[in-house]
Every structure is written in C-alpha cells, then in structure tokens.
Amino acid sequence: MIRISWQPLKQLELPVIPVFSRSLYRLHKLLYVFFTSLFRRLYWTPLFKSQIVGGKGLYLYSGMPQLLGSLSVSVGSGCRWSGISTVSGRWNSPQTPTLIIGDNVDIGWQTSIAVGNQVILENNVRMAGRAFLAGYPGHPINPIERAQGLPDMESQIGKIHLKENVWLGTGVTILGNVTIGKNSIIGAGSIVTQDIPDNVIAAGVPAKVVRELTLQELISRPSLHTLADEEV
Questions:
Q1: Is the pTM of this model over 0.90?
Q2: Dist. CA 165–CA 176, nearest whole Å
Q3: Do 170 and 186 form a contact (C-beta atoms < 8 A)?
C-alpha cells in the first residue's frame, strides 16, 4: 500500500513557467561559470601546479588531474588539461618516471597516461577524450606471477613520444616503445603498436598508415593567420 502511494509522488515535478524557468536557468549558468572559475583559479590550479614544474598559463577544466605514484611532470606554456584524467608512474621503476609536455598541448577528458619510464608530448599535441598512453602494463605476462601480484618486467615497458602537432582522435591507445611522427593524425579508436611516420593519417587495430597528408593540408591558410594577427 505504501509502495503504491509512493509511486505518484516520485513523478511530481514543478511545472515549467517560461519566464521564471528561463531566468532561473540563466542564473544557474551564471553561478556555475562564476564558481567554477573561482575554484579553478584559487584552488585546483595552484594545488596542481605545486606538483609539477612549469605550467605557465595552464588551463584546467572539470577539476584537477589525478597524479598517482612517483612522477616527474613538466608542463610548457598555454596548455589545456581536463581534470577528469589520470597520470600514473610505474611504482617499481628504477628511475623516476617522467612526463614532459610542451607548449600549447590539449589533453582531453578521461585520458590516462601510464608513464613507464618517459612520455613526451611535444608542442601543439592534441589528445581527444579517452586516449590511453600505455607506457607500462602493470602486470607480468606470466600467469602465475600475475596471480601472485608480482609487478611487470622491464622488457614490458617503453617510452612514448608524440612529436610536434600530433593529433589523437577519441579513444586512441598508444603502446610503449612507440613514436608518432610530426603532424600525423591517428583515427578514433585506433591502437598504435609501432612507430608512425611524419605527415600521415593512420587508423585501425593495429593502426596502419591510411594515406599521406597533402602539401595543401600541411600549409597554413593565410586568411586564418591574418585573422589571428588581428585578434592579437
């Protein structure tokens, strides 16, 4: 009886009063932007920058990235980084795992960077959401050792290097001992298991070169440069 009586109550909601509801929504957005900006400037950014080197003009959004394990992180100027992301350092590495980020780098939401020994993101790298840079696996290949909770082996880890202007689509995974060449683009959902050359589009599982970027695609459009100069 009580359950039956409770069901209609769960469906109750305030009616939409157009002028009032729109005004309340605008107020909600205004307060959200104000307090989000306040927290970002006075809380998230100072706390995060205390754990890294550099980071001039760093823009964090949606909170503060999670740093796990022993790590050395250096960040260039003008980077944007989603707070819904994780960077972990291999706990049993003989040397401190190092993440080096250049200038004007974007790291999207739900990105995970597992640093085995070193991960380098050069200037202007773009990483869409859910990217995974797997510099170490966290477990050994041997099933008995894995069941015993033993760590991964040195032979399983590797450096990851994304060169200047690399763009990773949504859900891309990069394994250890992989370098992505300058200007190259990796299609969404790809798993990269070997080096990718400069100036190409690669995609697939495992990722393979689809085609080379054309000269026209690599040359900046003058009109956009003029517009950018006018804005500055």
A1: no
A2: 20
A3: no
- pLDDT tens string 53-94: 999 999 999 999 999 999 999 999 999 999 999 999 998 888
- Mark out the alpha helices in the chain (DSSP H runs): 2-10, 18-39, 45-49, 143-147, 215-218, 222-231
H or E stretch including 87? strand 86-89
Question: Could you state, in order of their start, the residue ranges of all structural domains in the chain?
Answer: 51-231
Q: Classify 228 as helix, strand or coil.
A: helix
Alpha carbons 96 and 116: distance in angstroms, whole number = 9
Please tell me the distance from the alpha carbon of residue 141 to that of residue 146, in angstroms, as a whole number: 7
**The domain 51-231 is classified under which CATH number: 3.10.560.10, 3.40.50.11270, 2.60.40.60, 2.160.10.10?**
2.160.10.10
- State the catalytic residue, choosing from 28, 139, 161, 225: 139
| Cβ contacts of 112 within 8 Å, gap of 6 or more | 85, 86, 87, 88, 131, 132, 133
By the 8 A CB rule, do 186 and 203 touch?
A: yes
Q: Is 97 exposed, middle or buried (0-12, 13-18, 19+ CB in 10 A)?
A: buried
How many of the other CB atoms lie within 10 Å of CB of 206?
Answer: 12
SS3 state at 41: helix
The rounded Cα 215 to chain-centroid distance in angstroms is 29
139 is catalytic: yes
In whole angstroms, give the CA distance from residue 91 to residue 84.
22
Report pLDDT digits (tens) over 168-186: 999 999 999 999 999 999 9
Q: Token digits for 20? A: 């009032």
